[in-house]
Amino acid sequence: MNGELKLTRFAKYAWFVLAYNIIVILWGVFLRASKSGDGCGQHWLTCGGEIIPSAPQLKTIIEFSHRITSSLAGFFILILLIWAVVNWFSRNSERKSYLLKAVIGSFVFVAIEGLIGARLVLTGNTAETLTPERPFWMAGHLINTFILLALLTLTAWFASGGKKLNFNVKSKTLLLLGLGIFGILFVGISGSIAALSNMIFPSSSLAEGLVSDFSATSHILLRLRVIHPILSAAVGFFLVIIAGWLKSQAKENVRINRWANILCVLILIQFASGAITLLTHAPILLQIIHLLLADLLWITFVLLSANVLAEQNATEKNCLPLKFKARRDKKCDCFSNYFRFARFARLTAKIGRDKFT
Length: 357
Description:
Layout lengths: L8 H25 L24 H32 L7 H26 L11 H26 L11 H30 L5 H8 L6 H6 L1 H23 L4 H26 L4 H73 L1
Helix pairs in contact: 1-2, 1-4, 1-10, 2-3, 3-4, 4-5, 4-10, 5-8, 5-10, 8-9, 9-10
């Protein structure tokens, strides 16, 4: 498990698709932060009732370009799926069912991503519009995006030589990895709510924002906004603890140690990024950087988890010959005892016949 990953043409394309989807996500952040989500009105698939807007405003260009890049993301994943299916039926390539499942999952979730975007547009939950269901759509959008990134990451990792994941491991390992996943998702949800509240209820100063956060008359989104930095700090420290424990359990595994170190570094950078974003009233550029770091942190944790579970699988496979040998030796002992007993029985019978004859 400490060898270098094999970057075939399919693997390189899979990593490209992952990187491209990150760019699309960041462009979506710019779309939301610039309040351009209503640039095409409440129209889908058309933009303002036209296939190509004839006299677009700036926000229309931003929204329309986001739709184009999102469509290309789905198209690229479709090519990835077709390529994986062709490899599956090819005699010259190794069949990996887990790789094919990851690609299929990626295609399913990019389709769901498009449906969520369409629903937000058609219901008018864009730009500065606030409806009771919009926070829930934002949370669902973020969870779906993170699942999509995880599946694309696993696809690229499997294609690069990553081994099948083994979930039959220590309960403590699964518990920590599961808590880490849910922790990152909850931080992401709280971050999406905080970003929405900052856009709809902007504050002119940090002091004014703090007063709004703790005011009983403030909107519920403003009062929930304070949860994000607290939850981020708690989950960040917890992830550092997980990384340290995983390193201690796999001291000789280079990859686990490498991804654990990268995770800790990204957490520290994200802490600094969050603090600067808060103090500077969340300018668009810092919002994009903040989400980029969040995506990279999530991908790093996925790769760390994959290497941990694959290491367990490799360890178990290395032990199989010993198990089979033990079983074989046990069977040999049973056969030996049987033959000894049979020989003893024949000798006893012979002695008995000689005695009575």
